[in-house]
Amino acid sequence: MGASTSRISIRQGYVLVERPDDYEIDLSQQRKDLARIAALCAEANCRKVLALGGRARLKVKISGVDIFGLGKSVAELGLTVAVVMPHDGSKEDERFFEDVVTNRGAAIRFFSNEQEARKWLGID
What we know:
The chain is of the alpha/beta class. It has helices spanning 27-44, 64-76, 91-102, 114-121; strands spanning 7-11, 14-18, 24-26, 48-52, 59-61, 80-84, 107-110. The chain has one domain: STAS domain (Transcription Regulator spoIIAA). Helices cover 41% and strands 24% of the residues.
């Protein structure tokens, strides 16, 4: 895990996840964050999530097997997730994650800007 943790909060109609610039994407922290996201989604009675990163490229420390498991977990929660954060993971890993989630009935998509992500989620 990086030096900082994510800020996760309820907003009007969605849950906002904000990753600091020194955040590292590893399986242990992703599981913890997903549990927090699920709890807040339940509290807010929503399934939309907007995940934002800072300007720095986040370090991805997740294997393909971990991506698969995490994707299954996101799908089991029935979330719709828009991700806007620079990272050093591959485009192939992004597509794999999207496919795992989508093939199980949920949705996740990676965006290059927040405006497009908000439009896709229907929260703009």
